[in-house]
Amino acid sequence: MKPIIGVMPLWDEERNSIWMIPGYMDAIIRAGGVPVILPLCKDETILEQLVETCDGFLFTGGQDVSPVLYDEKALEGVITCEIRDMMEGSILRKAIDQDKPVLGICRGIQFINIFLGGTLYQDIPSEHPSDVEHHQHPPYDVPIHEVEIVRGSPLEACINKDHLMVNSYHHQAIKKVAQGLNVMAVSADGLVEAVCMPEHKFLWAVQWHPELSYKVDSDSQKIFNVFVEAAI
Fold it and tell me: So what CATH class is 4-230?
């Protein structure tokens, strides 16, 4: 049986609809998993059943994580989704308790860091200005800046490189790294680009977008491969 991967839904408030970037699903399928888009809800009974059913969880991109969760007031331009924050907090807690594999991408790395007690730069251009381009224009599968991979990290073992060119589309990033997380990659301006939780079976998160580059970059697909393999 192939592992079932629960994929956090993307929410379009203007259209009042759930949607999904195909790359999240396709990269999981290529890795040997069965992706399932989860409903956007906060019913604990439903969420408990989903965690029991799924073998792993992908925390996708999307709206900003609410600054309320790390005791800050939202800056102008910060857009949040309260029900998604609540849902993901419940699922992440249960997944960690049950030692089920987790992969976070973009918002995913930010949410995981906040959930475990870290903080964020709410707006990189105003709070951590640099010459590194973190919010690129299309096409989004083209690498835009380099990250340095931490030697001895699981990410280095996965891709067998100490530097990696990545795509990038975000305006928030990890500020204070949560206790229990190890940094696996950083950009030239010092922003955290990848983390893991070494005491968990598999909990990785990256700030870039392998779901948009997996077709043209084998290293992007490798991240999905090790995630799905951990869910078997």
Answer: alpha beta
